[in-house]
């Protein structure tokens, strides 16, 4: 009985330690990019020809619909191009303003 209790206690201690470690993102002195910075990185990666706009073809090639917003929702002025301003405004509407708790 004492053996079973020792094993159970050991498992409990080990599992709680890994949970704390997993939640801390590995510890250390580092930070994560803000939502806004991540959105800008996605925009820049999708803008294949670096002209400051995302076309429907670039949008589809980058598979941006997987983020839950279709091309037409970003293209608010309906010129068949998504500008950085359109992208960021739509991103903020759908995902919050980038502040904590949004």
Question: What does this molecule look like?
Answer:
This protein has 102 residues and is mostly helical. The protein is built from 5 helices and 2 strands, in the order H-H-E-H-H-E-H. Strands 1-2 form a two-stranded antiparallel ribbon.
CATH superfamily of the domain at 35-95: EF-hand
SS field, number of helical segments:
5
CATH topology of the domain at 35-95: Recoverin, domain 1
Provide the β-strand percentage band.
under 5%
Radius of gyration: 22 Å
Sheet/helix structural class: mainly alpha
CATH class of the domain at 35-95: Mainly Alpha
> What is the chain-wise order of helices and strands?
HHEHHEH
- The CATH architecture of the domain at 35-95 can be named as Orthogonal Bundle
Low-confidence stretches: none
- Shape assignment: elongated
In oligomeric terms, what are we looking at?
Answer: single chain
Output mean pLDDT: 80
Report the helical percentage: 40-55%
Spell out the key features of this protein:
two-stranded antiparallel sheet; 102 residues; 4% strand; mainly alpha; Recoverin, domain 1; 5 helices
Write the layout of secondary structure elements.
Elements: H1 2-23, H2 35-46, E1 53-54, H3 56-61, H4 71-74, E2 82-83, H5 84-95
Antiparallel strand pairs: 1-2
């Amino acid at each position: 009985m004492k053996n079973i209790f020792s094993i159970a206690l050991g498992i409990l201690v080990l599992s709680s330690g890994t949970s704390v470690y997993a939640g801390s993102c590995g510890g250390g002195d580092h930070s994560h990019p803000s939502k806004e910075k991540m959105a800008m990185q996605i925009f820049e990666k999708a803008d294949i020809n670096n002209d400051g706009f995302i076309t429907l073809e670039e949008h589809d090639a980058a598979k941006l619909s997987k983020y839950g917003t279709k091309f037409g929702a970003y293209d608010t002025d309906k010129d068949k191009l998504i500008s950085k301003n359109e992208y960021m405004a739509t991103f903020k509407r759908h995902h919050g303003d980038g502040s904590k708790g949004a």
